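Fold this sequence, please.
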Amino acid sequence: MFGKLLARTDVSQVVDEEPFTVADATQIIGQLTKEGHRLTTPRQAIIKMVAPRQDHFSAQEVWEDVKSRYRGIGRATVFRTLDLLTELGVLNRIHTGDGCHRYTVCETKHHHHLMCVSCGTVLPLEAAGIEGQIRKMASEAGFDLLTHHLELVGRCAECRARHTADNAARA
């Protein structure tokens, strides 16, 4: 089997050789400083709001949270901070079917995502079996692979059952 589905509540369980763990605000702030980025008060506030999240969220949702709690932090600052955190690998930017982006706080171990088009659930997927294949394909193409993202889009079990039941009721 190529992958193992992990429920959000299972994120800390051992999957392969090491567990999934999510970086906390202190680790993220430390990484930002280590990488030489300015540690402004607005950035710290945004990081402290985003780090504990275990859901997938949009930049607009973060902006609405920020403006309800802090004065003087602009919308552009929120968007730029999310872009920076994505660039640093702290956040995953997930491309949804509607053309919008959502974010999740990255687990510290490389993983992929299963995304439900109906309810928006995003689940981590450990897919160690395909990692070697991806590196092999890149190498055969003469490509120096730095990283990659894999998002599998479909319907979760609950939405699939609901969709099937709705179709059966219409028939």
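Strands lie at 4-5, 91-95, 101-105, 112-116, 122-126, 151-154. The two ends are 36 Å apart (CA to CA).
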